[in-house]
């Protein structure tokens, strides 16, 4: 059965453990004889060459490992498959029995639609890549369509309609889930639990680092990885102008976090800017101005109490800290993650009447359709809520023109 193993960029598998090289870590797929699966590795190398996130490569490698297990279990060549084979694979994914010798009759557990869709997306991306490389069987797994689902049409849609658009013949429909948001009171409780201002002493008491992080996520809608990847040079303090943060794509973070959507600027308010200034002052009091060689290149969110001082903060540390806070603060949702701040930010902007395309640019979505697909219900609910005042609507019926 194929295994997903860690390897260095462009290197060979050295062990079944995660291996870190100079360029970071990545993933590949091994066949049942522990040889690297060539067609899969070529596709994963393509993903690396276009600077896909390491987490994307990892997820795709896992999906393709399952697909290769499926092929090996049937003694079937990867370039001799059809739509029926893909349908069988999807069914096995749902039942959690890919390449199993026996299947439980009672059905047992059922894989989540989102998980199945993620695995299928990896397989279809693999075949789409090989279709572009001239593999005929891969080309048959896609069809040319002349329409685009949804109400949004891009600027050059008329050109795409003439040429047609490539669409996968196998799609897994995922039931949309309600977008989780935080209430203003819940965000305030968490901020105050992290750190509070002591007027008599003129200092902050508590974890100012995490108060700054939660406030930043709340007011900017940034992803956690984007926030943890910020360096001091990226924060342009307001000196007579509106303060702004520059989100810059950098692939060299020691913990693998990166700006998913590339470069963008996010303007922030004066209160958040002052909070950042207080954090800089706290870092200097802790000795960062002496120990850190290049201040501009240093990470804003760094270690203070554990690990190497002033080294970049790990995402795992943030999740662990938030888990502890959830246990201490009953008002916080048990399922809350840092990404809820991003959903909350977008929802608040849309309810305030900010145009969808502006919200899309602030969030860093590559396509406004992504924003529409995720948050269309917000504006729709706001419009439908206007229909609730039925008496006001019917009062106008009898008025003369």
TrEMBL record:
Leader sequence residues: none
InterPro entries per the UniProt record, alphabetical: CB, DNA_brk_join_enz, Integrase-like_cat_sf, Integrase_catalytic, Integrase_recombinase_N, Integrase_SAM-like_N, Tyrosine_recombinase_XerCD
Gene3D superfamilies: 1.10.150.130, Intergrase catalytic core
Keywords: DNA integration, DNA recombination, DNA-binding
A Pfam family annotated for this UniProt entry: Phage_int_SAM_1
Coiled coil: none
Positions of the Core-binding (CB) domain: 34-131
Domain Tyr recombinase residues, every copy: 177-389
Family membership noted in the UniProt record: Belongs to the 'phage' integrase family.
PANTHER family: INTEGRASE_RECOMBINASE PROTEIN MJ0367-RELATED, PHAGE INTEGRASE-RELATED
Name assigned to this protein: Tyrosine-type recombinase/integrase
Organismal lineage: Bacteria, Bacillati, Actinomycetota, Actinomycetes, Kitasatosporales
